[in-house]
Every structure is written in C-alpha cells, then in structure tokens.
Write a structure and sequence with these properties.
Elements (H helix, E strand, L loop, with lengths): L2 H11 L18 H4 L12 E2 L12 E3 L2 H8 L15 E9 L10 E9 L3 H10 L4 H4 L24 E6 L4 E7 L2 E8 L13 H15 L3
C-alpha cells in the first residue's frame, strides 16, 4: 500500500482516530518538556524523522492545543479526545523512518507517533479506557465484520506504560497506551515497500513497534 493509500483507508481501518494526516504545511509549537517526548534522529536506535511529510519533517513535532487545531493538523475528527470531561492540554504528532529492521522492505518501515497530554493521570487513564467504546476502535461500519484488526490484546510482555493494548490491523501494528498524564498511539506501517518483501506478522516488525513505544514511555 502506498502512503496515499494508507491515508485514504485510515479512517475505515479504525485502529485510531488520530490516524489521518496530510502533507500540507502547518506550524508547530509546544513546550520543551512535551516536545522532549518526541525522539529525534536515532533517539531510538535505527529511527530517524521521516523526511517525506511536510507537516512534521522540519519540526520536533507538529502540535495543537485545541480540538479545531488538532482536526486541522490531522485532517480528521478529534471530537472523542475533547469530549467532556476530557480536556487535552496539547496534541503532538511526528513521523519516523527505519531502514534497519530485519526483513523490512528495502524502503524501510515508517511509524507515526501521536501523544496527547492531559491535565491529570486520571484523565489520561479515563481517555484510554473510554476510547474502546468508540466504534472506530472496536468495530467497522459493518456490525458483522470479523476483521482481525478489531481484536485488541493486552500485552503482558513487554509492558508499555501504565496500561497498553496492541492490534494487528492488517497493514499496521497499533500500540496504544497511557502513562502518567499522557495518552499515546504508535502506528508502525510496514506496507510502503512492495510485497512480499515483508509480512505483517513478522515478529521483527512487532518487536520494532514495541521497542519504539517502550522508549517513548520510559521518560514519561
């Protein structure tokens, strides 16, 4: 699947509401502590900022502090993240590229990191729990669909953050977690190279996604 194909399908895949981003220019801001959560070149071994996105390639992270700003940034809905009593302080997004993952396509694998800072750890945990009630995280528009990406699992090992869940969305590994005042979504997208250069169930890809998520969670 191409980058544009992934963006077209990300809403219907439903692994995360923050999945859709575009490549039009956008400013970024953010406090230094918040921006410090976003790894830069080789901040996580093998990963560097993906140069292909004009929204995120030249900034530490693209950020927004309101629902409208977040929706404009990702070209998608963000209402569930701002539904009272949820009151995010800041949203940030960065894209990454890794050409060193074993068995990855020659072009490497890409990963998107989305972080929401909440006013309290209680709000972050509540948001993490409440999102599973949203149909985009649990089912497709077809109530009878049994696609594998609908089944989230709670990994006992390796642990990520205070609470975490993972799903194989068919072309993306999603790891969503909360830790402290933060709610985080990590999406590893191995499908930019030509099949059969990779297999989504490759344990090396899953391990790479978990290693990145753990590295992000560690300083939180």
């Amino acid at each position: 699947m191409t980058r544009s194909g992934l963006l077209i399908l990300c809403v219907s895949l439903g692994a995360g509401l923050l999945a859709c981003g575009s490549n039009s220019p956008s400013p970024s801001g953010g406090g230094s502590a918040f921006l410090g959560l976003f790894p830069q070149a080789n901040g996580v071994a093998g990963w560097t900022v993906d140069p292909s996105s004009s929204k995120t390639s030249n900034v530490v992270a693209a950020t927004a502090t309101t629902e409208a700003g977040t929706e404009a940034l990702i070209d998608g809905a963000a209402a569930d993240f701002f539904q009272p009593p949820s009151a995010p302080v800041e949203f940030g997004w960065q894209n990454y590229l890794n050409t060193t993952v074993t068995d990855a396509p020659a072009a490497g694998v890409t990963l998107s990191l989305y972080i929401l800072q909440m006013p309290s750890a209680a709000q972050a945990s509540a948001l993490y729990a409440s999102l599973m009630n949203d149909p985009l995280y649990s089912t497709r528009s077809n109530p009878g669909a049994t696609d594998p990406y609908q089944t989230w699992s709670d990994p006992s090992s390796p642990p990520v953050g205070d609470d975490s869940r993972v799903v194989n969305a068919g072309d993306t590994w999603w790891i969503n977690f909360c830790k402290g005042v933060y709610y985080v979504e990590v999406a590893l997208n191995p499908s930019y190279g030509p099949a059969p250069a990779y297999t989504q169930d490759d344990p090396n890809l899953e391990a790479a996604a978990f290693a990145f998520a753990q590295a992000v969670a560690k300083p939180m």
